[in-house]
Design goal:
- Two copies of one chain form a homodimer.
- With 339 residues, chain A is an alpha/beta fold.
- In chain A, the strands form three sheets. Chain A has a six-stranded parallel β-sheet with strand order 2-1-3-4-5-11, with helices on both faces. A four-stranded parallel β-sheet of chain A has the order 7-6-8-9, with helices on both faces.
- Chain A contains twelve helices and twelve strands.
- In chain A, helix 1 packs across helix 2, helix 1 crosses helix 3 and helix 2 packs across helix 3.
- The longest helix of chain A is centred in the last third of the chain and has 17 residues.
- Chain A is elongated.
- In chain A, 44% of the residues lie in helices and 15% in strands.
- At the A-B interface, helix 4, helix 5, strand 2 and helix 6 of A face helix 4, helix 5, strand 2 and helix 6 of B.
- Strand 2 of chain A pairs antiparallel with strand 2 of chain B.
- Chain B binds a DNA duplex (30 and 30 nucleotides) through helix 2 and helix 4.
Chain lengths: 339, 339
DNA sequence: TAGTGAAATGTTATCGTTAACATTCTATCG
DNA sequence: CGATAGAATGTTAACGATAACATTTCACTA
């Protein structure tokens, strides 16, 4: 950015000191009314814009929050961002948004850059798929304010906002078992190292257990979080001899469910007649696809809002506690489960 | 952010000058190999993170780009952001994202804050609905690097990346006229003061003219850019005596079309039998709604990519010209037009 | 062994703003 | 009318990093 008008320029133009100009423009007391007005006038005419970079250097505050999301096209996240925005806008914080593209390496790079930019805090949904938490442990220890949302890393002393994944996953699985009497239920899982992958898998397991159904290894296929992964995972299941195939599919999220639907369609099989299927997220497409998707409705906006609120509290208040905030999701019944 | 390790801390710990530390960590020549290694070691142990704020103050560069979008939930924009991201990530720029929520006031505030944050450039899709361009004229004159995308403000010397709105709008309207023989065609328009609102309206007009159809004032209803607006606008049309009602509706974008569809459904009328309807954007829902929407496919990712590239060129190259970059959209035929 | 030049390191000033302390006004009172 | 408190303004240093210039160190040559 080119040269811009500084306090000193205004001061020189008026024959006063920079300090007086600073005081006038920041509406401090102890400035003569006339002087103040003169300065404000002049500043306007000269087109003065305060330099926040310089201000930040002194104040050690940037009024800036870093947000790292794993995937901007997954409709869930823009909605979360909207929730975050609502809170930060009111408190005059700016958002620096980074998309990690489901790559932990990019995520680390993003976090490092954000820290180096002196953001006042970071909101992150982690793409990490390994169990080595050294990276985040160090971040937290360096007293960087950090709040996880959706995909959390627990046990390192950072707060987290997420929906009750396990419970919801159990509920939707039980719906398949109890309402529809399915016994052969598969799970297209997320990476087990990511909280939501693990939690949703556990919910699925618990539902089976409670109904005394045994888990079939061949029916647990890791699919990642994207459509393509769901497609591939479903193909594997379709390769099983027909008698070994499940009758229902619990998917770790909506994109994976859409991918699986695609594979089912391609194979000439029908939903829900051949396969019942459920998702998780309730993204915008869920009610609109050919067979509307039964899924878990996640209050994304709420997640963003709560996470941002928690972070701002951490930034302001010294004594703010680490917290695990769970937001209740609801089951959204549509046709894909057989209802 | 709490106190962090500075160059000086490292320097003191090792009994050298800050300058040597700076040189070592920035891999400059003229530093003894051993000293350099020692410093790099120490920096790692002490957990040093460079302070970009300080660096920016000296270099007058923040490696940061401001992005202002009118609506983050409109699926078009996240896709644009992805395109921008691709470019900026490679060049090591960070994005500061702001959502103006279709409010010009918020937009101005955002731009001012971004300038004050010393971003190296700004990418913006304007929500402005008034014809007073003083604000942006001043921004451009203050040699802030600025590139518009999608919703542009023209004639003030800023570059712009957008799709061939007028032409595409004309094409889709002509499709209704020539392929389906509709003669009574309405337009749910955007605000006329926004480029895309104006351009798409003009495309619609031109199509009518070329087929010697006269425009009917009652069939031109301003609907804004959102679903709710489309719903309301369509209601107005449905209030007309049935004989005065149009047979086809050209909408300024997809959300407006969805809103209109809702109103049509509520009135117990059928698409495309009672009303043919077209959109503009081809957002994620378009192929999925009850009657799949015939619309204009906008290469959002491409728009983002090109806009970001142009901006980076402006930032780097001194002699970069103002440019109007038009990207070709394509007509996406589905069922809502009667095909 | 003194002299030389390049490499290594150090010092000072600067970016734009503000905190903390210092000085100069000015109005009011005894 | 001088003293004085309080308002108005000014000066200096600092935030952390770096550019520009200054000094020291050291290997090598004449």
């Amino acid at each position: 950015m080119g040269k811009q008008v500084t306090l000193k320029n205004i001061a020189d133009a008026l024959g006063v000191s920079t300090m007086t100009v600073s005081r006038a423009l920041n509406d401090r007391s102890n400035v003569d009314k006339k002087t103040k007005e003169k300065i404000i006038q002049k500043a306007k005419i000269m087109g003065y814009t305060p330099n926040r970079v310089a201000k930040s250097l002194v104040s050690r505050k940037t009024q800036t929050i870093g947000v790292v999301i794993p995937e901007i096209t997954h409709a869930f996240f823009p909605e979360v961002v909207r929730g975050i925005e609502e809170v930060t806008y009111r408190s005059d914080y700016q958002l620096i948004l980074t998309n990690a593209n489901e790559q932990f390496e990019r995520e680390q790079h993003a976090v490092n850059t954000l820290r180096s930019q002196q953001v006042d805090g970071i909101l992150i949904s982690s793409s990490q798929t390994v169990e080595d938490y050294t990276f985040y442990r160090e971040i937290v220890n360096s007293n960087t304010h950090l709040v996880f949302f959706d995909r959390c890393i627990q046990g390192i002393g950072a707060s987290c906002v997420h929906v009750n994944d396990r419970e919801s996953s159990e509920l939707i699985t039980r719906h398949l078992i109890e309402k529809h009497q399915y016994k052969k239920i598969a799970h297209l899982s997320g990476p087990r190292e990511v909280t939501i992958g693990r939690e949703r898998y556990m919910g699925y397991q618990e539902a089976l257990e409670k109904s005394n159904l045994t888990e079939n290894r061949e029916w647990i296929v890791e699919a990642g979080f994207k459509e393509e992964g769901g497609y591939q995972a479903m193909k594997k299941i379709l390769e099983l001899p027909q008698s070994d195939q499940p009758r229902a599919i619990v998917c770790v999220n909506d994109p994976v469910a859409f991918g699986a639907m695609e594979a089912i369609k391609e194979a000439g099989r029908k939903i829900p007649d051949d396969f019942a299927i459920t998702g998780f997220s309730d993204e915008i497409r869920a009610p609109l696809v050919e067979v509307p998707l039964t899924t878990v409705h996640q209050p994304a906006y709420e997640v963003g809002r709560r996470a941002a609120e928690k972070l701002l509290k951490l930034i302001d208040g010294e004594s703010e506690q680490t917290e695990d905030i769970e937001i209740a999701a609801t089951i959204q019944i549509r046709k894909s489960c057989g209802c």
